[in-house]
Amino acid sequence: MKSLREYTGKYEWLLQFLFLIVLFILFTYEKHNDVFDMARIAFFSLYAGVALFIGYYINPKYLYRQKYKQYVIWILVCLVFLYFMEELVLEKIFYTGKRATHISNFFFTLLGILPMVFIMVSFKFNLDFIHKQGEMEQLRAAADDSELRYLKSQVNPHFLFNNLNNLYAYAIEQSPKTPEIILELSAVLRYMLYDCKEDSVLLTKEIAHLQHFTALNQLQIEDRGEVNFMISAIPENYVIAPLILLMFIENAFKHSTGSMSDDILVDIAIDVNREGQLHFYCENSYRGTSNNDSLDKGIGLENVQKRLKMLYPNSHDLQIETTDTSYKVNLSMQLEKLEDK
Questions:
Q1: Which residues of 115-151 are buried (b: 16+ CB within 10 A; e: fewer)?
Q2: How many domains does the chain have?
Q3: Which residues span the domain enclosing 182?
């Protein structure tokens, strides 16, 4: 669907013409004579010509470029031109008697001219304003898109760096779990490199990716704790911005294993109701008294909060609760259906 800016830009001259036609009829038509007064037509043409000159030449060249001194000078020139054309030319052509010979006060004459000229110039101002607003929205959207791409690009190196270090350690120890870790890591990387390039992905794909990611981290915990991943019936036709939920799960494992050597607990639950409202819950055990200042906090929480505000404005609710023993995340967000995209 075309925006108002596109319509006004494409049909600006047509809109301008129709607007002047309406003003022309209102200004020149004399009801009691049921005819158009030629003098009024001439005066209207003068006003319209000056108004178009101001709107299409003076404003763009001086006012919009903040050349205010030149702008004021040109406006004064236009006013003087209007005054002399009306008093010394048009009135002498179309009128006789006192009106043709008498030259009115400059300000008195302008008092009768300015309302019509102001209305004409204001219409062009409104068209320009709509155009500028559209440009600002495009720039804002482009800036938001650039920031989203930047935020998303930060996720992949962060994840890859952590897991390659872990894989290297398992390979050095010749752990029998190394092949399984490689398979899980391969599935995760395949998704992050190819599937999550789009602005939105199927929710079922995103959840499958989270399951691979969780399994990968669960292998590293071994018998040092417990990991629960509960999923209710997930509808097939909903989409979600990729890697939103991943950051919370990654932080859960990172801060649990970083602050605890045993009794690690990570609980994850995902549910979607019939209206497409997603409920995500993630809780991890945590020892606030442990020395975990060296943990790399990275971009995690700040990243995901920014993306939520940009992608789901006024349609998400994020609640985070931290105690000395646990870290809980409750996130609700309204998803869109695939056919609505």
A1: ebbeebbebbeebbebbeebeeeeeeeeeeeeebeeb
A2: 2
A3: 175-340
